[in-house]
Amino acid sequence: MRILIPALLCAAVFASPAAAQLSAPEQAIVASVEADYETDVALLERITLINSGSHNHAGVKAVAEALVPEFEALGFTTEWIDQSAAGRAGHLFARHEGAPGSTKMLLIGHLDTVFEPDSPFTGFVREGDTAVGPGILDDKGGVVVILSALRAMKAAGTLDDANIVVALTGDEEDAGDPLEVARRDLIEAGQWADVAIGFEALSILDGKDTGVVARRSSGSWTLTTSARSGHSSGIFAEGVGYGAIYEMARILDAFRRELPEENLTYNVGFMAGGTPAEIGEDGLSATTTGKTNIIPSTAVARGDLRALTQEQNERTAAKMRAIVAEHLPGTEAEIAIEFRYPPMAPTAGNDALLGRLNAINADLGLEVMAPYPPSRRGAADISFVAPYVDGLAGMGPSGSGSHAAGESIDLRSMVRQAQRAAILMSRLAKVSSSE
């Protein structure tokens, strides 16, 4: 179900800075978030010091166990959803039942990071209002923003009527397989909800906060070419052909020339060619052998595919298959394309949610948040629920260096993001899903 927020609201907010003043409960929210700043930083430090790489199942669960008391103290019921069937640790869901008929809200974050136990990047180092640590921005800071916002709502009395499900996945950085199992519970929550809010990092553009109303998909492709082998002196000759590497080069160059369009990218991650060449069992490496005087029998390549809509995904995939089907003499080729993370396509409902947030920005004395270009954001879990519900992403804190040693967070950004989120949820809680 989609909550019916007038699409014209967004345009109205952008057109006029005039807005109602903060209510007394909303003023209490602002003060509460500010007062709990050091408490939030302490929680962030505690969970950042727990290694929770996607494949460190014990660590992911330990982060969840550290968060359970935080949610239960706010009146949420919690559930650990085991994901051993998908090869991952599991997900933490927290649920709050509010007034019947009020807006049903799904808050999305994740417990895992890209830093596995063997990573040399560890610890938590704070210097003033900046801190460095693995996953501190992506997405442990986002999880803290969720809790900070909910705690402020509780203190202000606006949480009571709110119907909320918090979904913290344990494998966002490397989703389990089969994906139908790994994302089943999240999708069911999206089908229940009226609104979804994603708490991955805030996007900054030209020094200003922005809103994320669309994100591109994330898929992958595997290309294999094969050819007759033989002495290199016969290459190009009739009955011999061009070899597997030339066929690979033909295809990849045709991708480069023929596929470009707005919001579409298709990277080649790695490749190998020789006699033979093959992709490793991990799907992240390739091996090959060969000689300069032998026509290569095999070439392999893997890459990704990112698009703004599912239609763009499917149309591009059809073009790629057509290019692959045009073989050089003496060669064969095949491509396998897998769509993993779907796109969060732009919608009027998503724009209207950003309009509501900008009304709050006006009340808080903050600048208008423009939509962030979707081509600059990667895929995220909110995309799995995008077909069912209006959504707003990028509601986590700001920082830099995600997925790399030195990942950092602007700690003060947690304050304004929690204030925005708490007021937004408080206002949404008053909106009937039947309106």
TrEMBL record:
Record PANTHER family: ACETYLORNITHINE DEACETYLASE, ARGE_DAPE-RELATED DEACYLASE
Protein name, UniProt field: M20/M25/M40 family metallo-hydrolase
Family annotation (InterPro entries): Bact_exopeptidase_dim_dom (IPR036264), Peptidase_M20 (IPR002933), Peptidase_M20_dimer (IPR011650), Peptidase_M20A (IPR050072)
Top-level taxon of the source organism: Bacteria
Keyword hit for Repeat: no
Cited SUPFAM superfamilies: Bacterial exopeptidase dimerisation domain, Zn-dependent exopeptidases
Upper lineage: Bacteria, Pseudomonadati, Pseudomonadota, Alphaproteobacteria, Sphingomonadales
Residue ranges annotated for the Peptidase M20 dimerisation domain, each copy included: 213-331
Signal peptide extent: 1-20
Keywords recorded for this protein, A-Z: Hydrolase, Metal-binding, Signal
Organism of provenance: Qipengyuania mesophila
